[in-house]
Write a structure and sequence with these properties.
The protein is of the alpha/beta class. Helices cover 39% and strands 20% of the residues. It has 2 domains: 158 residues, 3-Layer(aba) Sandwich (D-Maltodextrin-Binding Protein, domain 2); 135 residues, 3-Layer(aba) Sandwich (D-Maltodextrin-Binding Protein, domain 2), CATH 3.40.190.10.
Length: 310
């Protein structure tokens, strides 16, 4: 099974590399969101989300269905595998169907929360901060992982490359995750801004992968020279694929950031919101819930500390 998954991953990256090469031939939450991208037509920027339009998604409109959205911090396959046990657990606790809703970008999930189209969502830190500033979402709970409620951005490169610092990434191919990703975009952009640099002036070319595990695979497979990724996803990926440890080197670690939280729409029904919160806060006390948390790689959910997101 693992071999099949690896072959699928290689095939997927073959497609990705092909798209990247085609683009190269054709082209010859926070105030940091527009940093360095005012000239997106510049050949240094390859936006994978613009290659082909996504088909419209139609969701079951059952009045009693609970809708749980998940931002694509993992690639779609990884997200489904990780969150399906939680989906089943919530259905049992709530006595109602639960729909697992995925979107390709963090912004799409933010928009669904803004319109109160989902009951709650697992979002990234940068997307939450942006949504909080816009008044469209609020904290529900946050995950505690290995005793911590914070995580870091990691700048990574291939283990056998000559890259030893951010300076060595000048002129290289770099992978961002999503324009609203704290660790996969905002952090490296802030590092460039402090140097008076932009994407166009610093990197030779960039791509957006739209999940942290895709960025990790892009570095491991030589599709890009370096990337910025979520430390939690990085650790999870190495546990799942230990052979990657010999292929990737961590170049730099950021300061601590608040863990990607679970958020609700500011328009959410107070009673329903409280019920979801109660279930998530108590899930670690249930043996069946412990299996759910293990699939997510989470120790437990805890009351949110708003100071972590300011």
């Amino acid at each position: 099974m693992k071999r099949i998954e690896q072959n699928k991953a290689r095939a997927g990256w073959g497609w990705l590399l092909g798209c990247w090469l085609i683009m190269a031939l054709l082209g010859g939450c926070s105030d940091e969101l527009d940093g360095g991208f005012k000239g997106e037509a510049n050949k240094a920027v390859v936006r994978l989300d613009r290659l082909t339009p996504m088909p419209a998604r139609v969701y079951d409109q059952q009045a009693n269905a609970v809708k749980m959205a998940v931002a694509a911090m993992l690639s779609p396959g990884g997200t489904v595998m990780s969150y399906r046990p939680l989906q089943s657990y919530l259905e049992q606790k709530l006595g109602r169907p639960v729909q697992l809703i995925q979107r390709r970008t963090y912004q799409e999930v933010n928009e669904m929360l803004a319109r109160n189209l989902v009951d709650f969502a697992f979002v990234c830190t940068g997307a939450f901060v942006a949504g909080q500033e816009q008044g469209i979402m609020e904290l529900l709970v946050i995950p505690r992982i290995e005793g911590r409620e914070t995580y870091q951005a990691l700048l990574i490169a291939a283990a056998d490359s000559a890259i030893r610092s951010l300076d060595d990434m000048r002129g290289k191919v770099f992978a961002f995750t999503d324009p609203l990703s704290n660790t996969g975009y905002l952090y490296p952009m802030s590092r460039l801004r402090k140097r008076g640099e932009s994407v166009e002036s610093f990197f030779g070319r960039i791509i957006f992968t739209y999940s942290h595990d895709n960025s990790i695979a892009a570095v491991a497979d030589g599709v890009v020279d370096a990337a910025s990724v979520d430390s939690i996803v990085f650790a999870h990926t190495l546990r799942r694929e230990p052979e990657l440890a010999g292929k990737i080197r961590v170049i730099e670690r950021s300061r601590e950031f608040g863990m990607p939280p679970v958020a609700v729409s500011s328009q959410a029904d107070p009673a329903a919101r409280q019920r979801y919160k109660e279930i998530l806060l108590a899930i670690h006390e249930d043996p069946a819930g412990a299996d759910v948390l293990a699939a997510l790689g989470v120790e437990r959910f805890v009351e949110p500390n708003p100071d972590l997101y300011r």
